[in-house]
Amino acid sequence: MKAIEIHSFGGPEVLQLEEIPVPQIAADEALVRVYASGVNPVDYKLRAGGAERPLPFIPGWDLSGVIEETGADVHNFKKGDAVYTRPDVKRDGTYAEYVAVKASELAYKPASVDHVTAAAIPLAGLTAWQCLFEHGQLEAGQKVLIHAASGGVGTFAVQFAKWKGAYVMATASESNHDFLKQLGADEVIDYHTPGYENTITSVNLVIDTIGGDSQKRSLTFIMPGGILVTTLKPENKDAFEEKGVRLISMYTQARPEDLNAIAKLVDEGIVRPVIAKVLPLAQAAKAQEMVEGHHVRGKIVLKVHEE
């Protein structure tokens, strides 16, 4: 099969398209024919050596595809099922024509969209869902602010929060304001504006996927008893504790029940994945360069097989 492999850490140039054997599956796994793979920041961070892991490895941890084969202990899926997931990031990823995945990580893909669209959902969608509802405990009527709202996680978070009945605030460049209001944001703030944090009040929940001074600025407007959920390193812990604000750092879990809930919203037309560009597998380096530039609206997706 064709796959993108990394034999040394470095820039996008280390991503090599190679011919390697199709993976063998264990009794509790399924072999999935990958139709499309989403591209996420974790992909380029691991490519650059952001975490110790054996070389070579295949990046990519978003997929939509069709089951080709199941292990002896797999009874809830069968050959031909269309599935999607965020597989275990400790294993080889989805920049490949086939991938071995634990059946316990799989969910049926949304029936109303194609594989390219479905592949944009798992990691970003799960992250947004778990930030808002598991860690953030968001309820209808609350006020939530989503940083970097035009990105992969942000575009889902805006739509999920609006569906829940929250008042949705978002930070983004001015060029993305109308777009985010179309997605459901009630108010959009240009994060380039000096002192923007002083114009915001009484926020119950903040979602942070960018780090830096966004957490410190957020402390200005989060109410005591509120929550800031970050996908990055928590900072200024003492200041948050002093104000009575919970600061939570989260790691996304591949939960099929969450993927099923998201798929239902997609199929009902309540949530739509936002895709900036679709590229062939061979252009994985270009895709990662785009994501690394931090100005992608929604997601980049690699098409691996034609549907």
TrEMBL record:
The entry lists its GO molecular-function terms as:
oxidoreductase activity; zinc ion binding
Query: What SUPFAM superfamilies does the database record attribute to this sequence?
Result: GroES-like (SSF50129), NAD(P)-binding Rossmann-fold domains (SSF51735)
The Enoyl reductase (ER) domain sits at: 10-302
- The reply to whether Oxidoreductase figures as a keyword in the UniProt entry is yes
Keywords, A to Z? Oxidoreductase
In its UniProt entry, what is this protein called?
A: NADPH:quinone reductase
Q: What organism is the protein native to?
A: Chitinophaga filiformis
